[in-house]
Amino acid sequence: MASFVIEGGHRLCGEIHPQGAKNEVLQIICATLLTAEEVTVNNIPDILDVNNLIQLLREMGVTVAKKGIDSYSFKAENVDLAYLESDEFLKKCSSLRGSVMLIGPMVARFGKALISKPGGDKIGRRRLDTHFVGIQNLGADFRYDEGRGIYEITADRLQGSYMLLDEASVTGTANIVMAAVLAKGTTTIYNAACEPYVQQLCRLLNRMGAKISGIASNLLTIEGVEELHGTQHTVLPDMIEVGSFIGMAAMTKSEITIKNVSYENLGIIPESFRRLGIKLEQRGDDIYVPAQETYQIESFIDGSIMTIADATWPGLTPDLLSVMLVVATQAKGSVLIHQKMFESRLFFVDKLIDMGAQIILCDPHRAVVIGHNHGFKLRGTRLTSPDIRAGIALLIAAMSAEGTSTISNIEQIDRGYQNIEGRLNAIGARITRI
Ligand SMILES: CC(=O)N[C@H]1[C@@H](OP(=O)(O)OP(=O)(O)OC[C@H]2O[C@@H](n3ccc(=O)[nH]c3=O)[C@H](O)[C@@H]2O)O[C@H](CO)[C@@H](O)[C@@H]1O
Ligand SMILES: C=C(OP(=O)(O)O)C(=O)O
Fold it and tell me: What residues act catalytically?
């Protein structure tokens, strides 16, 4: 297991470019299975989760070619259906969450999908009911083989239908949309997730010949078509990385410019950081964060304590709350961080408390942070990264701390952040991989 050694207390200065969005590209790569023609995808981040999924597709028989530094083409002409039954395939699926989105395209195009319980962050219960019920609504049969821990979904031609999802699941919506595009007749999905990841998937599918309307809303209408064809797609910048860089700049009192952020797709993220008192300016499609000696958390209009809570899009993504929590530890004022979706994502605050942060973990979902206003520096220490976003949050804490910290289990960070130490060291950080 690799670790990062971080020398704290160095300011950053300069420009940084966000990578392509992890959670979008996982959907897009799965969608390439819906056609026998070539689909070229640009701005693919070089991260563990994405590389594992690309490798999985290769092993399934998809022809994958690297076209440029971050571009790949995918041609799913000869998919090896027998391989999908193998223990090797099923074991690999269980190492990443994104593999669950193979189900929709596989059932739609080949009438069969097998999958083991997908991996991803251990951040609380992550049920898959929305996925399975949605695909069952389209007429598929669903079986769970308890002995092998495997889900098996089979169908003849899927049949469009109306459905109201029990929750606006991001990967669930993606799966159902990918299944519905090749179904017979019209599918209507109400309470659909509408994150930019899902919007981008729908736009790609329409370029492949699908007929999806209602994109960016929670009511999607999909008229099934007979087949899809090849196209090109460019992945948006990763909004979670953009948010992570904003938080990092504030914590380390740094002046940075985050380049080409696709501002219009960031939703409420910039405003949420402003509520913590962080100044940031939109300059064209860049975000400029000036060096700030202090940042003061706002109160609500009635004077009550600020609450930062996650919500389904266009609310604040839960994936940025860990970063916002860390940033609040050096703000002026107090904030309640309320992680509504996941119940095991806030436990990493113990590590911040060890570093000297003032945090009260009220329950698994809520933490009150009392900011030090930079009057007291966090202390460098030995840390371990429990999940991807706690990992980047701890990295930010270590970069702002006094002394040296070591973060182990950085595979969690590598899952979602491309060459993070190289990119941060280029603007002044001191991070060594050992
Ligand atoms: C690969 C990928 O894209 N992963 C993202 C995706 O995961 P993923 O698609 O797996 O997450 P879901 O949207 O399904 O939901 C996550 C959890 O929140 C609960 N839930 C969800 C929606 C809702 O309205 N109410 C509710 O309670 C679900 O029961 C589940 O436990 O979306 C999550 C929520 O934005 C993000 O944290 C993950 O980074
Ligand atoms: C929780 C996340 O990832 P995954 O869904 O892949 O576990 C995340 O990206 O923050």
Answer: 121
Task: Look up the ipTM and state it.
Answer: 0.96
The protein residue with its alpha carbon nearest to ligand 2, atom 1, reads: 121
C-beta 338 within 6 A of ligand 2: no
Measured CA angle at 59 (ends 58, 62), to 5 deg: 40
Which of 169, 173, 218 for mutating ligand 1's site (highest number of atoms within 8 Å of CB)?
Answer: 169
**Ligand 1 atom closest to 98 (CA):** 1
Domain ranges of the chain: 3-19+237-433, 22-234
Given its phi and psi angles, is residue 51 left (phi above 0), alpha (psi -120 to 50 degrees) or beta?
A: alpha
Q: Return the CATH architecture of domain 22-234.
A: Alpha-beta prism (3.65)
Per residue in 99-115, pLDDT (tens digit) is 899 999 999 999 999 98
What is the CATH code of the structural domain delimited by 3-19+237-433?
3.65.10.10
Q: What is the pTM of this model?
A: 0.97
Structure tokens given for 209:
């010949």
Model pLDDT for residues 277-301, shown as the tens digit of each residue: 999 999 999 999 999 999 999 999 9
Q: Tell me how far apart the alpha carbons of residues 235 and 297 are, in angstroms, rounded to a whole number.
A: 33
How confident is the model at residue 330, as a pLDDT? 98
Ligand 2 pocket mutation, candidates 25, 313, 389, 392, criterion most atoms within 8 A of CB: 389
396 ligand 1 Cβ < 6 A: no
